[in-house]
Amino acid sequence: MAARRIDWSFGPGHGPVSGAINAAASVCAATMVADLAHVSPVWGMTAGAVAAAGAVVSAATSNAPGRALAYRALCWLGAGGWSTWALATATPEPFSGPWSTGSLAALAVGTLGAAITGSAFQWAEQRAEDARQSEVDAELARLAAEEEARARASEHDRIAVAWQRELRKQTRREVEVVNVEFWHPNTGFTLDVQLPADGTTIDDIKPYEKSLAHAMDVPLGCGVEVIDPGVSRRVVHIRVGTVDALAEDHHLPAVCEPDTIENPISIGIRSDRTEATANLRYNCMVLIGQTDSGKSNELNVVTDRVVRCTDALAWAIDLTGQARYPRPWVRAWHEGRAVAPALDWVAPNADEARLMTLAALELVNYRTADYEQLMFENGWDKIMVSPEIPEVVILVDEFGSLPDDVKENLRQISDTGRGAGVRVVSCALEANSTYIPRAMINQSRERVGMRVQDEAQLQYLFDTTWKSGRIDTSTLKVKGSGMWSTDASLPEKFKGWRIEPARIDAESITVAPWRPELDEASVNRCNVLVADVKGKDGYRVKQQFTDVYTGRWDRTLSIIFPARATVPAQAKETRVERDEPAKPARQGDNPVPLGEAMADLQAGLQRMRNAEPVPDPGPSVEDLPPLPAEDVEWLDTLPVAEPVRPNQEAAKPKPQPRRRMRQLVWDAGDTGVGPTAVHKQLEAEDYATTYQTVNGWMKRDAATGILAQDGERAPYTRGPQMLNPHERDQA
Length: 731
Hints:
Number of helices: 23
Radius of gyration: 50 Å
Oligomer: single chain
Mean pLDDT: 78
Helix content: 40-55%
Strand order of the largest sheet: 6-5-14-13-12-7-11-10-8-9
CATH topology of the largest domain: Rossmann fold
Distance between the termini: 99 Å
Low-confidence stretches: 1-14, 569-592, 612-634, 642-651
CATH class of the largest domain: Alpha Beta
Number of strands: 18
Strand content: 5-15%
Structural class: alpha/beta
């Protein structure tokens, strides 16, 4: 702060010059009056001394410097000395003493000297004061420049200051922005916010997401997300987008490598372009999305991630469009372009879904008991999945279209299947009790909600206590975008990977050699089931079925891949020339006489008789079995064992079809055997398998080294990895 300015004048309202003149005039007048009154000259000096003392005391009380005290004291003493000299030199003659020219001249000279000296002192003081003020201004300017430089030195500081000010204004909480981290590429940033120690939580900040985005003028399509980074209770992260990353299509990464279900699977990217993941090793998943939201694409992404795992098998249920969703995943195998189907089991109708879920319940109920010794030896409290004992992931599309008993089976699997390594991914068009029960959501710690129109559906999926306005659904306008929560975390915005049909076909071929086989103990559990079927009298009775698992493709392939219809354009190009049949008469047309019509009919019949018949090549060995009759219940077409009766001992089961195939190859020795001969032998032994299934088994075993084949059409022989299948069965 600048020092207090010194008053060099001799009275209020005067400067050094006017004050000196005024003081001199006063002294002159007082001295003249004293001369007329014949006052003793001593009083002049006495008055000057008193005035000097008063000036010194007044200046001292105002903390004036020494030069100011000396200046005022000398001025008043000089005035007192002049007055004494003027009175002492006064005579009876006129114009003597203070009236004389010499006295007045001496007073004028003294006054001029005092004025000049006072002005000099005042100018010096003004210059010093200006210098001090300049120093203060320079210091303030330097501090302001440094503060501005610090604020402008980094974009981090500028953003931190602006957002901290707005956060405090909006939330009325003393939050502190301690760091700003830019995304790569530069499409936004994340604020590292420290909460005060007054009980403020993330729930106090999250409701202001939408208002903060509006106040800070975040670009359209971008948003503000308050998330919990899991670092500390008093640390939250705020994601702010500056470029709408969710508006772009992000294709599934091209690298396709073997994976394990123990790792989280990547389902898309978040707004900061980091991966959104889900854990299907121990958790179930619920995926909802309205029509044209990208739900089916997201289900295919999840399927892709599961079939890459060498310790997991994917079972798919889709009752719409004859397994519309899983069909692309098994097409390559069906056409002989893959050694194995990417999906281990597909249920295209309600009865097959019933069998699949009943088989999964058998795994849930008995798998841990089958491996009790292994679990005890390794100290496990649940099945530790591996390529030898793979996890089973049931992927369900259109959950709302399932029969009630299948839904109940899936609910039980979701509740109790964790320890046995059986998990469920359920998809539905809407998140409400009509499409998916609340019990399924409660047991699903992985939840994905694609874009929806009604925020209430997100409330149903993520949190029934959700307050309205917590999510800005206007930022989820792009197909494939949605909300995602993993392991019960707060929901975040994400964009699912894009996977095209050609990519599905290519990866179904790539992952085929990696796909594990269901362990033998689980096959035995799944292969013989007891299910309720409708008898001839219309009542439900318990019936035992065999070859449920091993014969799954024999039952379903003809449904998934029916006889292909000819494309209309192709049909027009390849149509055989033939006579056009007579068109029926319509009302208003000229009627054809009955005699002429009969003659045309007879001529047409004669042409049909004269036509040479086209030879029928008969069914190929690769043809699929026909569809069952519409009036026959699906379960009635399965291989049926004798009805279950109390105290009836089950006969020793035959070797599995695939095991029996290996036994036949083993028995053939170096001569080898082909798939046609194996298929005929299996048919003779009453195995319900097709040539295509046997051929696929043998190709896959040859790819893994269990079998060997010198050429494409050469017979199969024992491979380097093959063990004696007879001994393994006996063991």
